[in-house]
Structures are given as C-alpha cells and as structure tokens.
Amino acid sequence: MCLTPHPITSAASLGHYLTPTPTGFTLHMSASPRNLHAARGLTAQALRGTGAGPDMVDAAQLVLSELYGNAVRACGDYVPLVAEVEAVPTGVWVRLHDPDGSRHPRRVPGVRLDDAQAESGRGLPLMDLLAPGWDVVTTPVGKQVRCLLSPDLGGAN
Fold it and tell me: Are strands 80-88 and 142-149 parallel, antiparallel or unpaired?
C-alpha cells in the first residue's frame, strides 16, 4: 500500500470532530449509529486513499466496529470516543479510546468463530485473527484499544 495523502478534510458536526492526518484520521465523537456509520465510511475513504486493498478496508472497518460496540456496551450510548485509523508501512493501526479505564474487553468462554448458534462473543477472537497482539492501555482519561492489522490482509488494487 502506498502512503500518500487522501482528500479527507477537517469537519465539525453535531456529535463529532474530524482531524485528517496524512495517512488516516482522528475522529472525536459521541457514540451513535450515525457516527459509527460515518467512522466506517471515513475508514474506507482514508484507506483507499493510501492504496489499501478491499480486504484491508473491510478488516479495518470490522475491527473499528467491534471496538466501537465493545465501548458502547462498557460505557453506554453517546459515550465520548476517539477513533484513529492510520496506514503505516507495517499495516493499518485502528485505535479506539473510551473514558472507562476499568472495563477491558473480555472473551466469552467457549465461543468459536464458526459457532452458528453464538449470539455474541466472536468479536475478540476475530480481532485475534485480524490484528494479533492487539492490546489495551490505560490512559489518564480512560483506555485505548490498539490494533495493528497486517498488510497481508490485502495490498493495492
């Protein structure tokens, strides 16, 4: 993937503030379905602008959605979140910050990715596949979950 700038511009809107970076973005937002949709769209736009392939774009959107859902389950609707997506030579970073440093993602025991009956619990094993070594860091204002997606997920079109 080439790491060239993309055409995302700064924007403030009800419930979010976007800061473009040369190879991605930082989005401050309140958790809502509308803002999740916007974050997924920005992820696709930013990564396509760097030459990321469709598999990488899909994986980054999926990981962002999983982190977003976990934050809402931990903290509640309309919680303030900061999402960061950044293409780097070693892959794509997807980071999500929420204000609750005490509640970290937990796996549901006994759930397999191919379990058709499972109603939840597949997200973290999926993150293990897409971003092995993902981690959680406690910050002065909460926590940040950091995931590095491998460039093996898809290169330039």
Answer: unpaired
Burial tier of 70 (Cβ tally within 10 Å: 0-12, 13-18, 19+): buried
pTM: 0.83
d(CA 70, CA 111): 16
Contact 46, 24 (CB under 8 A): yes
From the list 23, 28, 24, 36, the residue with the least C-alpha distance to 12 is 28
Give the total residue count for the chain.
157
Report the percentage of the chain scoring pLDDT > 90: 52
Helix residue spans in the chain (DSSP H): 33-49, 54-75, 123-130
Q: Please state, in angstroms and rounded to a whole number, the distance separating the CA atoms of residues 109 and 67.
A: 19
Cβ contact 28:3 at 8 Å: no
Amino acid residing at 114: D
* Amino acid making up residue 95: R
Residue 140 backbone dihedrals phi, psi, to 5 degrees? -60, -20
CB atoms within 10 A of CB 119: 8
